[in-house]
Amino acid sequence: MRRRILAGMLAGVMLFTMEGCAGGADGTPESGKTTDEETAEKTEADETEIQVFIAASLNTVMTELADLYNEDHPEVKIIYNADSSGTLLTQIREGYECDIFFSAAQKQMDDLEADGLMVEGTRTDVVNNQVVVVTLKDSGTKVTGLEDLDRAESIALAGGSVPVGKYTRQALINLGILPDTDEPDRITTEEVSEALGGVEISEQDNVSKVLTAVAEGSCEVGTTYYSDTYGYEDDLDILQTVSYDLTGDVIYPVARVVNEEADEAQTAAAEDFLEFILSDEAKAVFESYYFDTDV
């Protein structure tokens, strides 16, 4: 009799223990969440987010680089802010949180450094690019390049504070179309139009919008970067690849930004991602997107 009572008690203890491990009757943990949900929450909790400000012309290539980086570092979430380098610099100055700044021109990086907002010793020149004059395929334009830009009915042109807009103005100065000045970025769109005989110019605030204006047929021609024509080979014709003699080098520098809000994990992730941007693996990706890595 005593043996039967003891056996019953032990069976009850085992049943209670098993139900306690399994959670509810349906096997759901006592938390009410599945294992996958708990794993996802743990991953999210362990995730480190970094803010990377990139020139608009880098958007496509940097998206691929983020995907490659995340194959080995899934715990790092890379948030891109893509716009003109001038706009990005203004945002950093205004206190926007940023870990890495990848500019399309040296001027904005020079200004960042002068403002004391760059982490010392992290600045590196990464790639070179070239300004191109483009038009929609079969547009019938009479324009062949910058020299006869006045033959266009409409032009998409970035503002002077946008690197590609500044490089275009510098080329027009060197061709004698615009008056000589040490500050080509201060030449207004209206002044460019007057120098070209009053041609209609649609001013854009970054290089991607210039490309879109031409690709959608809103403007007959525009000046953009060679790298931006990647993926548009069937839609656009390159009328001219502007020589460095006219524009100067189109160097893209990168650097870490002073971020007082970053914790140790965020700082370490930013350092590591910057190192990846400068790696041979990344170099091959840049070249596949028409960037020149010989800088």
What tags apply to this protein structure?
295 residues; alpha/beta; D-Maltodextrin-Binding Protein, domain 2; 2 domains; 5-stranded mixed sheet; 11 helices; 41% helix; 20% strand; globular; disordered N terminus
Name of the CATH superfamily of the largest domain: Periplasmic binding protein-like II
Provide the residue-averaged pLDDT: 89
CATH overall fold name of the largest domain: D-Maltodextrin-Binding Protein, domain 2
SSE order, one letter for each helix or strand: HHEHEHEHEEEHHEHEEHEHH
Number of helical stretches of at least 4 residues: 11
Strand content: 15-25%
Question: If classified by CATH, what would the architecture of the largest domain be?
Answer: 3-Layer(aba) Sandwich
Provide the CATH top-level class of the largest domain: Alpha Beta
* Neighbour order of strands in the largest sheet: 2-1-3-10-4
Domain count: 2
- Give a count of the beta strands, DSSP E runs of length 2 or more: 10
